[in-house]
Amino acid sequence: MLTIGCHLSSSRGYLAMGKEAARIGAGTFQFFTRNPRGAKAKEIQESDVAAYLAFADAAGIRRILAHAPYTLNPCSKDPSVREFALETMADDLRRMEYTPGNCYNFHPGSHTGQGTETGIALIAHTLNQVLRPEQSTTVLLETMAGKGSEIGGCFEELREILDRTALSGHAGVCLDTCHVWDAGYDIAGHLDQVLDQFDRVIGLDRLKAVHLNDSQNPLGSRKDRHARIGEGCIGLDALIRVVRHPALKDLPFYLETPNDLDGYAREIRMLQEAAAAG
Ligand code: FE
Ligand code: FE
Ligand code: ZN
Predict the structure, then answer these.
(1) Cα-to-chain-centroid distance, residue 116
(2) Average pLDDT of 128-150?
(3) pTM of the predicted protein model
(4) 76 CB contacts (<8 Å, ≥6 apart)?
(5) Alpha-carbon distance 67 to 60, whole Å?
(6) Per-residue pLDDT tens over the stretch 148-180
(7) Phi, psi of 64 (to 5 degrees)
(8) What confidence tens digit (pLDDT) does each residue in 241-271 have?
(9) Which pLDDT does position 39 carry in this prediction?
(10) Distance in Å, CA 67 to ligand 1 centroid
(11) Helix (H) / strand (E) containing 171
């Protein structure tokens, strides 16, 4: 059965997210570890986490995905921005262990003029400082649209980061359908070939999660503007092929489409029906 959910607000805690997910028919969800612009995180409430874990277990909610703030940039040329990324990731990973065995996704970063090589080295350096042998959390590099000086707009860059990460068993990749499309990977016309390429360059065993989004822009536009499922340039049929694909169908899918909760509920229901019919 398809594991699908959407991005939810974390402002009221874990139990509130679990209940919201259950109410809209989601089997999982994604949330920001703190304000997406990167403010200080609220300390974990152990009673909230305990109540959430019991609720999620009963409701069948699993494989939740935490998303680091957008402002996090481990390969900025500004040392204070890199320091913020390091401290934020270390703190987020400490807090992730309250809900063991889940994934933590981040945007690899923008090299801000230093060049791709330096950017990759700085990202791997950060991972090498924050990953711990004993952690149960897997850290995911998100595939990016490649706008500006973004790292991660091609599979080779992600492979290079993983190769330079000592504890790479604790690291993986989250594929964002809007981002790879905007980066020039034709998942609408040539899904098999794109996944073959992912497998050759990174390895499909490294793929741990999918952000399921349509795109407001055409293939290769390098824009990163999400659209609702079926209302963008990738299209409904292509996104249904994504959730049904044998190499992907057992992964957790997270919608980051411009929607309110009712809209998310509709997309979740539609995709579950499409997956079951396939
Ligand atoms: Fe993201
Ligand atoms: Fe995403
Ligand atoms: Zn995006």
Answers:
(1) 21
(2) 98
(3) 0.98
(4) 82, 85, 109, 110, 112
(5) 21
(6) 999 999 999 999 999 999 999 999 999 999 999
(7) -75, 155
(8) 999 999 999 999 999 999 999 999 999 999 9
(9) 74
(10) 7
(11) strand 171-176
Give the Å distance between the CA of 75 and the centre of ligand 2.
Answer: 19
* Ligand having the closest approach to the CA of 226: 3
In angstroms, the first-to-last Cα distance of the chain is: 11
- Amino acid at position 69, single letter: P
pLDDT class for 33, splitting at 50, 70, 90? very high
Model confidence band, residue 40 (pLDDT cutoffs 50, 70, 90): confident
Which residues lie near ion ligand 3 (Cβ < 5 Å)?
A: 224
Residue 129 host element (H or E): helix 116-130
- Return the residue matching tokens 């065995």: 101
pLDDT for the residue numbered 132: 98
Residue 257 CA to ligand 3 center (angstroms) comes to 9
Q: Residue 22 C-alpha to ligand 1 middle, in angstroms? A: 23
Helix (H) / strand (E) element for 263: namely helix 261-277
Among all bound ligands, the one having the nearest atom to the CA of 145 is 3
Structure tokens at 96: 């992730």
- Find the 273 Cα to ligand 1 centroid distance in Å: 26
Domains annotated for the chain, with CATH where assigned, are: 3-277 (3.20.20.150)
